[in-house]
Design goal:
Helix content is about 40%, strand content about 20%. The chain is an alpha+beta fold. A hairpin with a 2-residue loop joins strand 1 and strand 2. Helix 4 packs antiparallel against helix 7.
């Protein structure tokens, strides 16, 4: 059943070397050559059953080939869950992309081989052996994986096994989450998850067999970051001992699962340490509720690293009392309780009276600003879509390039970054290699073999329109749909539509509660993936 270099089920992909092996299959590096350019993929092969010994064991237990076949068919379906789960993340910059899969069945015995073709990435473990890892990279890893977990949350998926072995690195330095082999949908497991995953990074509630949410993934990510900022040691493992024994690890696990407070990691700044310890809080109630909350604090730490300004995420200590005056005290210095209550009541009333004129002024400002925004939106609608796009692009051409690593993901920065990428691609299009037929479909590849644009002409369009899709790091970020004078533009950030400008020129920004907005965003996102792979 095991071959050193198996044949690829895709004729255009040639397996050239073995890349690794884990609990869930073997991984090989495959190559495809197009017009002198080499492209690489990872092909994961899962063999079911894993060995003849396993087959013999199940046959002995079940007593018949039919029952054994049914047993292994169920195992195969479990494995296919990984594929269906990861296919939902196609185009996401922070999750390992599944590009295709095939299943073959043995003809002469019970058995299957599942082939999963994925983007080829460097394992995080290998990356660590060749690269130094400082606080800045730790924060970037945390940000990237938080964005992956945001998508997991939207799809109601718990990964359940976040650990260094399941993290990968793109050639652009982005960190990606992979191996959803034991992931489950939240609604199927909300009543309690089985104790799967790796105990070294497992959340206490999962370890104790209690009901779980996606906070178990936040906890595991926090522990990964803890280890990266603690000289490669998990909590409660001595930094002074060179040789760590199994007993050391067991004792550390027991202390962590008993609820003992984690000591701060050795090399994290105060703000980063706060984020890590909050992510690793024993009680889910004290932990970050969502990966979005954790991402927001990590981005503040990221800005502190870049600018030197404090992150200001650590809350003030509770229980600090303000000094008061005008109260009568006894000889022991303790104020009378009723007088203290009256004082606080009067103080609150005074503050309220002082706040009224300020509130009125604030409301007046809101009215004025609202009028200004209304006028601004009216002007935007009156302009043509083309003029809006040209203004946006020209407004950033004199500005220095925004770094992907340092750009904040707020809306304004995202729009600038999208426009800058469009400008870069359009200016370099004449030097790109093209594949396809004019009038049908043309793909544009840069000098590094990266797909940058797909032009779909009306002849191949489902709606008989011109469709232009622009890609960066293998992910759609801009779509331009037009026919005659009618135009529509779609702006994507990390797989989510953030702006849609419709045919009438109306601008729709982050309207996630609008079904049409969501439907259109999903439609062109899916089409971009189809065109990328066709």
């Amino acid at each position: 059943m095991d071959r050193e270099l198996p044949m690829s089920p895709w004729p255009e992909w040639n397996i050239i070397s073995k890349a690794g092996e884990g609990a869930y299959g073997r991984v090989y590096k495959a190559e495809r050559t197009v017009k002198g350019h080499s492209f690489y993929s990872a092909i994961k092969i899962i063999t079911i059953p894993e060995s003849r010994e396993e087959l013999s064991s199940v046959l002995a237990e079940t007593g018949s080939e039919e029952d054994a076949r049914r047993y292994f068919e169920n195992v195969m379906e479990e494995c296919l869950r990984e594929i269906s789960t990861m296919e939902n993340f196609r185009g996401n910059s922070y999750v390992v992309a599944v590009e295709d899969y095939k299943v073959t069945e043995y003809l002469d015995e019970i058995g299957w081989e599942i082939y999963i073709r994925m983007e080829f990435l460097e394992s995080f473990q290998e990356y660590l052996t060749e690269n130094s890892f400082d606080e800045e990279k730790t924060v970037k890893l945390g940000c990237d994986l938080c964005r992956a977990l945001i998508y997991c949350s939207r799809l109601h998926i718990i990964h359940r096994d976040i650990k260094p072995e399941n993290i990968f690195v793109s050639r652009f330095g982005d960190f990606k989450l992979g191996d959803f082999g034991i992931a489950r949908e939240i609604e199927k497991t909300i009543g309690g998850l089985s104790k799967k995953g790796t105990s070294s990074y497992m959340a206490p509630e999962m370890y104790h067999g209690e009901p779980c949410t996606n906070q178990v993934d936040i906890y595991a990510l926090g522990l990964v970051m803890y280890r990266l900022t603690n000289q490669n040691r998990l909590p409660f493992i001595s930094l002074d001992k060179q040789l760590i024994t199994y007993k050391d690890k067991e004792n550390a696990l027991v202390r962590r699962m008993s609820g003992e407070a984690l000591p701060p990691s050795a090399d994290a700044g105060e703000d980063l340490s706060y984020v890590i310890l909050k992510a690793c809080a024993y009680s889910p109630a004290e932990r970050y509720r969502t990966p979005g909350e954790m991402l927001a604090d990590l981005e503040k730490v990221q800005q502190r690293i870049l600018t030197g300004k404090p992150a200001e995420i650590i809350p003030e200590p509770s229980g600090v009392q303000e000094e008061t005056s005008g109260t009568d005290s006894g000889s022991d210095g303790v104020s009378d309780g009723n007088q203290d209550k009256d004082h606080k009541k009067n103080e609150t009333s005074s503050r309220f009276r002082q706040a009224v004129p300020w509130a009125a002024a604030f409301l007046a400002v809101i009215v004025l600003v609202g009028a200004g925004v209304g006028y601004f939106l009216k002007r935007m609608v009156e302009d043509t879509v083309r003029e809006q796009t040209e203004r946006m692009i020209s407004s950033i051409q004199d500005r220095s390039e925004v770094s992907e690593e340092t750009a904040s993901l707020d809306f304004a920065t995202s729009m600038d970054l999208i426009s800058e990428r469009v400008t870069t691609i359009v200016e370099e299009l004449p030097g790109y290699d093209t594949i396809g037929t004019e009038g049908e479909r043309v793909k544009y590849y840069d000098k590094d073999g990266q797909l940058r644009k797909v032009m779909v002409y009306p002849a191949l369009s489902e709606e008989g329109v011109n469709e232009e899709y622009y890609y960066w790091n293998g992910s759609l970020f801009f779509a331009y749909i037009w026919k005659g004078e009618e135009e529509e533009l779609y702006y994507y950030r990390d797989g989510m539509l953030i702006r849609w400008i419709d045919k009438e020129g109306s601008v729709h920004d982050e309207e996630y509660d609008d079904p049409e907005y969501e439907e259109r965003g999903d439609k062109y996102w899916r089409r971009s993936i189809v065109q990328m792979e066709t």
